[in-house]
Amino acid sequence: MTRFDVWGGAVIAGAVIVCFAAEHRRPLRPRSRPLGERLATNALMVALAALTLRLALLPAAVAVASAGERAGVGVLRWLALPPTAAAVLAFLLLDWTVYVWHRLNHRAPFLWRFHLVHHTDLDLDVSTAFRFHAGELLLSVAWRSAQILAIGVSPGPALVYEAALEAATAFHHSNWRLPLALERTLNRVLVTPRMHGIHHSIREAETNSNWSVIFSWWDRLHRTRCVGVPAQTLRIGLPAYRAPLGVLRLLALPFVRQRPAFTPR
Ligand SMILES: [Zn+2]
After folding, report:
1. If you measure from the C-alpha of residue 119 to the centroid of ligand 1, how many angstroms do you get, rounded to a whole number?
2. Is the Cβ–Cβ distance between 205 and 53 less than 8 Å?
3. Which range among 110-119, 129-138, 229-238 shows the weakest confidence by mean pLDDT?
4. How far is the CA of 99 from the centre of ligand 1 (A)?
5. How confident is the model at residue 263 (pLDDT cuts 50, 70, 90)?
6. What separation in Å is there between the alpha carbon of 211 and the centre of ligand 1?
7. How many Å lie between the centroid of ligand 1 and the Cα of residue 72?
8. Is 247 buried (19+), middle (13-18) or exposed (0-12) by CB count in 10 A?
9. 17 C-alpha to ligand 1 centroid (Å)
C-alpha cells in the first residue's frame, strides 16, 4: 500500500493536473455557476471521499485480494490461464462489473440516495470527478470485495485497476474540449468527456445511459450508450436540485426525505 501511495498517487495526481489545466485552456461546456463556489464545496467532499478510499476501500480490496490468492479462489484462477491473459481478463472483468455497480447505483433506491450527491453538481469538471458521498464509497467496499474474490484478482492487479479507474474518472468528468475527431476515435475504446457529460444531463433518459467507467464498450454491449447530444446545450445536474448545496446538506442528503430526482420543483 505504501508503494501504491507513491506510484498510484502520482498517476492520479498527474491525471487531475493535466485535466484541470486542459479544461481551463479548452473548455467544453459553458459554466452555470462560479468555479470558486463549487471548488470550495467539492474540495471538502473530495477530501472525505479520498480518506474513505485510502483508509477503507483500498485496504479492504488488498486484504480480500490477498485472502483470495491464499485460498486459490476466483474464476480466473480456476481457468489456470497464462499470466498475461489472466491480467488482461481481470482488468476487463473488473471494469465490466464496475459498470454493473454504477448502473445499480442508479436503479436501487437505497444506493441512489448516496450516488445522487455526485449528480447534484450543477457543472461538470475535474472537481466533480471525486465528489462522492463517503457513504457511497463505504457501500462499494462490499461490491468491490466480491468482484475481486469472484474474478480471482491478486493485490497488484487490483491496485493497478484502481489507479486506472481514478485516472479515467478524472478524464471523463473533465470539461476538456478535445477535437471532435480525436474524441470520436478515443471513444471507440474509452469513456470520454462528451460521452460522460451526457450521463450528468438533467434529462432522465440521458442520465440513465453511459454508465461505463474506463472502457466505453460496456454501454454498447448493454445497449445503454447515448451519444450525439451537443455538449454546449447540456444542462448538468438533477431537476429537483437546481440550487447549489453546501457540504453539510450534501452529507445529510442520503438520510433525509428524498425528492423525486427527475420531477422539477
Ligand atoms: Zn452516475
Report:
1. 7
2. no
3. 229-238
4. 10
5. low
6. 7
7. 34
8. middle
9. 23
Instruction: Convert the pLDDT of each residue in 22-40 to its tens digit.
Output: 999 999 999 999 998 899 9
CA 105 – ligand 1 centroid, Å:
7
**Distance separating alpha carbons of residues 139 and 58, to the nearest angstrom:** 13
- Ligand 1 geometric centre to CA of 77 (Å): 32
Hey, how many other C-beta atoms are within 10 angstroms of the C-beta on 100? 14
**Cβ pair 157, 90 in contact under 8 A:** yes
Residue that wins the pLDDT comparison between 240 and 261: 240
Q: How far is the CA of 162 from the centre of ligand 1 (A)?
A: 18
The position carrying cell 432522465 is 204
C-alpha cell at 186: 478515443
Specify the DSSP class assigned to residue 209: S
- What does the block give as the cell for 237? 445536474
Q: How much distance in Å is there from the Cα of 106 to the middle of ligand 1?
A: 6
- Cα 66 to the chain's mean position, in Å? 25
> How much is the average pLDDT of 203-213?
95
Q: Rounded distance, CA 255 to CA 250, Å?
A: 10
The DSSP bridge partners found for residue 190 are 215
Burial class for 10, CB neighbours closer than 10 Å (0-12, 13-18, 19+): exposed
| Spacing, Cα 43 to ligand 1 middle (Å) | 19
Distance 156 CA to ligand 1 centre (A): 27
Cα-Cα-Cα-Cα dihedral sign, residues 123, 126, 131, 132: positive
Q: How far is the CA of 84 from the centre of ligand 1 (A)?
A: 32
Contact present, 182 and 102 (Cβ < 8 Å): no
